């Protein structure tokens, strides 16, 4: 499989999040050409700050290979990682990150800064941004548009 095909799998995970009313962000981790972990955003369901898709799949991948070091893995995620997730990527030693949509408000893998390629850290990751960007971005745009419309309808019903 190639990067686009793996990102398509991450998009499928994002759609699972959306079905639960979660912000549709999905992620997978690939090791030696095979998906070893998949997951999606669960912050609203679990009400925990660290329930981002990236952190969920990093934990699952750690369990799969029985190591905190994910040195031979690639992380695919539908939205550019935030600072918290970028930190976890560095700490887990993931050497390659492929993301879909850029996040101009919180992205720390190219938009606001690039923590993963900062030479001051003891680890760097190769970053490929914009993979299936339109599909990833449209999923998020539609989700937030529908959420805003739903809130408008509910506020009118309350009047």
From TrEMBL:
Cofactor binding note of this UniProt entry: Binds 1 zinc ion per subunit.
Gene Ontology terms describing biological process: tRNA wobble adenosine to inosine editing
Domain CMP/dCMP-type deaminase per the UniProt entry, residue ranges: 1-110
GO molecular function: tRNA-specific adenosine-34 deaminase activity; zinc ion binding
Domain of life: Bacteria
Residues involved in Zn(2+) binding: 52, 82, 85
Enzyme Commission number, as recorded: 3.5.4.33
Keywords: Hydrolase, Metal-binding, tRNA processing, Zinc
Named cofactor requirement(s): Zn(2+)
Any Pfam family matching the protein: MafB19-deam
Catalytic activity: adenosine(34) in tRNA + H2O + H(+) = inosine(34) in tRNA + NH4(+)
Coiled coil location: none
Broadest EC class assigned to this enzyme: hydrolase
Record-annotated active site: 54
Family: Belongs to the cytidine and deoxycytidylate deaminase family. ADAT2 subfamily.
Quaternary organization: Homodimer.
Function: Catalyzes the deamination of adenosine to inosine at the wobble position 34 of tRNA(Arg2).
The protein, known as: tRNA-specific adenosine deaminase
């Amino acid at each position: 499989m190639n990067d686009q095909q793996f990102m398509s799998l991450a998009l499928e995970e994002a759609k699972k999040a959306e079905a639960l009313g979660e912000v549709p962000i999905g992620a997978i981790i690939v090791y030696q050409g095979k998906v070893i972990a998949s997951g999606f955003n669960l912050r609203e369901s679990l009400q925990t700050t660290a329930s981002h898709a990236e952190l969920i799949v990093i934990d699952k991948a750690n369990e799969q290979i029985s190591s905190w070091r994910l040195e031979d893995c690639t992380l695919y995620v539908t939205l550019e990682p935030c600072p918290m997730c970028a930190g976890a990527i560095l700490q887990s030693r993931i050497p390659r990150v492929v993301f879909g949509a850029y996040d101009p408000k919180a992205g720390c893998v190219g938009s606001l800064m690039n923590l993963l390629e900062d030479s001051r850290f003891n680890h760097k990751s190769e970053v490929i941004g914009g993979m299936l960007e339109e599909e990833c971005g449209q999923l998020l745009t539609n989700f937030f548009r529908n959420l805003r419309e739903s809130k408008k309808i509910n506020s009118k019903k309350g009047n």
